[in-house]
Design a protein that fits this description.
Elements (H helix, E strand, L loop, with lengths): L6 H18 L3 H7 L4 H9 L17 H12 L4 H21 L2 H12 L5 E4 L15 E5 L2 E12 L6 E7 L9 E7 L5 E3 L13 E12 L3 E2 L5 H37 L1 E2 L2 E2 L4 H29 L5 H26 L9 H10 L8 H14 L2
Parallel strand pairs: 1-4
Antiparallel strand pairs: 2-3, 3-7, 4-5, 5-8, 6-7, 9-10
Helix pairs in contact: 1-4, 4-7, 4-8, 5-6, 5-7, 7-8, 7-9, 8-9, 9-10, 9-11
Bound molecules: acetoacetyl-coenzyme A.
Length: about 375
């Protein structure tokens, strides 16, 4: 068992790191303050290849597989988390749903633009009454000739204010419960699609979020993703990859917080000596290093298995649960090590602490991950 990254992925790692440090890092404060990522920065991320790293070359991806994807996402954790959020919702969620569900005509129509960052995508599953219990969604799609007429609403949709392409989930046969759910691609500007205002959030400023409303929105049958009734499996299969990416991102953010904490602890002198000489500080750093290492191994293991074609539902949930809970602890201790400075907006650590909070909620709460893990465990016992 070789736990070293192959040469190709080490090269990818250093090129993504260089792009992130040189092109994105100078803008991270401005993104926080304006609550906006400029189109030119999104275009730069597209040109760097960031949107397509883990996706099939056949559809315009870079073909580095899920391990390559995780290696890259980890490096994206070195800057404002909102940058990755735009990419993750576009290719990781919207693109993956189309890639999984097909058919080829829909893949050909949308994936090259999503995987090159030419178009921003969104993934619309959650509803006001269907968050963790996503299978109980109420949006309905009624067949009308060769089209569907869709009514309903979605909530907390990442990228909605700026997205050009939306994958939405609606029920075509409510009598079948989650087996009636069907996925569709909808373009911005479609008659009957209303996009709400950008929601104000605790963190992730720069990454936009809004509600969607569908008012008798007519969608041609040719925009259906997968078969009728397959939508819930497509949604959950997509979330396996989303959760894996979020775990990798959490590892990257935690690593940056640890590096900064260690550096600060060595330079901050109190009682006549650097605070890094205090055992209380050393234990915080040691625990963070240990947990980051464990989370990284979980992420790489799940990703490598996905690349072999294994279904990773349980492992992605484990990696997401462990990595995001770990990030919460590491971010809290990073603020503690930085003391008063850790609480000041002047330093990015305060922002990272707020941004970290959502990772335990979106793409399935920690409690949902435990449901998935326990469900698989009991099924196989
Ligand atoms: N891949 C393919 N099929 C899957 C699957 C997967 N990963 N996981 C489950 N399935 C299948 C099951 O085998 C089952 O199939 P059968 O009925 O044929 O046996 C079917 O899908 C339904 O599965 P469950 O019975 O397990 O479904 P459930 O209703 O009990 O739900 C749940 C389980 C795990 C709680 C699920 O509802 C869930 O994950 N909820 C959380 C939703 C979530 O993460 N939302 C986040 C939205 S996106 C976001 O947050 C980001 C953003 O910005 C948009």
């Amino acid at each position: 068992m070789d736990l070293e990254l192959p040469e190709e992925l080490r090269l990818l790692q250093s090129s993504v790191r260089k792009f992130v440090d040189e092109t994105l890092a100078p803008h991270e404060k401005e993104v926080e303050e304006k609550d906006e990522i400029s189109r030119s920065l999104i275009a730069a991320m597209g040109e760097s290849g960031l949107f397509g790293i883990g996706h099939d070359e056949k559809w315009g991806g870079q073909g580095f597989g899920k391990l390559g994807y995780c290696v890259a996402v980890e490096q994206a954790g070195r800057v404002n988390a909102s940058f990755w959020n735009v990419v993750g919702a576009t290719s990781g969620l919207c693109g993956t749903a189309i890639e999984l569900g097909g058919p080829d005509a829909v893949r050909e129509r949308y994936l090259p633009d999503l995987f090159s960052g030419k178009k921003v995508g969104a993934y619309a599953l959650s509803e006001p009454g269907a968050g963790s219990d996503a299978g109980s969604l109420k949006t309905q799609a009624k067949r009308d000739g060769d089209a569907y007429v869709i009514d309903g609403a979605k909530t907390f949709i990442t990228n909605a204010p700026i997205a050009e392409v939306f994958v939405i989930f609606a029920n075509t046969d409510p009598s079948k419960g989650n087996k009636g759910i069907t996925a569709f691609v909808v373009e911005r500007g479609t008659k009957g699609l209303e996009i709400g205002k950008n929601d104000e959030k605790m963190g992730l400023h720069g990454s936009t979020t809004a509600q969607l409303y569908f008012h008798s929105m007519r969608v041609p049958g040719s925009q259906r993703v997968g078969d009728e009734g397959q939508g819930f499996k497509i949604a959950l299969g997509t979330l396996d990859m989303g959760r894996l990416g979020l775990a990798a991102h959490s590892v990257g953010i935690a690593q940056r917080l640890l590096d900064a904490s260690a550096q600060y602890a060595k330079s901050r002198v109190q009682f006549g000596k650097p605070i890094a000489t205090n055992q209380a500080i050393q234990w915080m750093l040691a625990d963070a290093a240990t947990e980051i290492h464990a989370a990284r191994l979980m992420v790489y293991d799940a990703a490598a298995r996905a690349d072999k074609g294994e279904r990773i539902t349980q492992r992605a949930a484990m990696a997401k649960l462990f990595a995001t809970e770990m990030l919460g602890r590491v971010a809290d201790n990073a603020v503690q090590v930085h003391g008063g400075m850790g609480y000041m907006r002047e330093l990015w650590v305060e922002r990272a602490y707020r941004d970290a909070r959502i990772t335990r909620i979106y793409e399935g709460t920690s409690e949902v991950q435990r449901m998935v893990i326990a469900g698989a465990l009991l099924e196989n016992t």
